[in-house]
Amino acid sequence: MYYSTTYPSPVGLLTLACDLTGSKLVGVWLEVQKYHGNTIMDGMTEKSGMPVFDRTKDWLDRYFDGEKPVADELPLAPVGSKFRQEVWRILCEIPYSEVITYGDIAKKMAAKMGRTSMSGQAIGGAVGHNPVSIIIPCHRVVGANGSLTGYAGGIPAKIKLLELEGVDMSRLFVPKRGTAL
Prior knowledge:
By secondary structure, the chain is of the alpha/beta class. The chain has two domains: 2-73; 82-165, Winged helix-like DNA-binding domain superfamily/Winged helix DNA-binding domain (Arc Repressor Mutant, subunit A, Orthogonal Bundle). Helix content is 30%, strand content 15%. It has helices spanning 51-64, 82-92, 102-112, 120-128, 155-164; strands at residues 2-9, 12-18, 25-30, 44-46, 100-101, 141-142. A four-stranded mixed sheet has the order 3-2-1-4, with helices on one face. A two-stranded parallel ribbon has the order 5-6. The chain is globular, with a radius of gyration of 16 Å. GO terms for molecular function: methylated-DNA-[protein]-cysteine S-methyltransferase activity.
C-alpha cells in the first residue's frame, strides 16, 4: 500500500504518492495524466502530513515561484524497470530552462548500454511513463525538430511548465495531430 495526498498547482491538481514510511516519493501525477498512478499496484490511501509530502510541497512551491530546485533534493523512488530508471536518471540531468530531444536521450542510453543506437520509441515510452512528473522533468523533452510532443500531462501543461522555466519557445511548436516524434 502507498499513501497519497493532493497539491493544487498552476498546471492542475497533482496527486503525490509515497511509501508506507512516508520517506520516499514514488509518484507525482497531474490529475489528467495519461498514466496517472499506473505504477502503484497496491492502491493508494489518502494520508496528508507524511514527511516526504511536506518536503515535496515545499519543493513544488519553490518551483512554481520561479526558483530552481533540483530533483536530488527529494528522496525519489519511482517504480519502473531498470531501463526506465536509467532514462529517468538522464531526465534529472536536464538543466532547468533547457530542453533535450528524444534522440539525445537515445544516444546517451545507447552509450550506457554499450550499443551503437537505441530506439526512439523505447525512450519515448520510458519518458511518457515517468511517474514523478515535474520533479523528474520529462516536460523538458522535445522532438528533434522542436515539436512539443509526448507529454502525458497534456501539451498545454508542458507549454506552461516550459514557459515558467523561461525556455526559449521561439523554435518549439505544437505538431498537428497524427504527427510522429
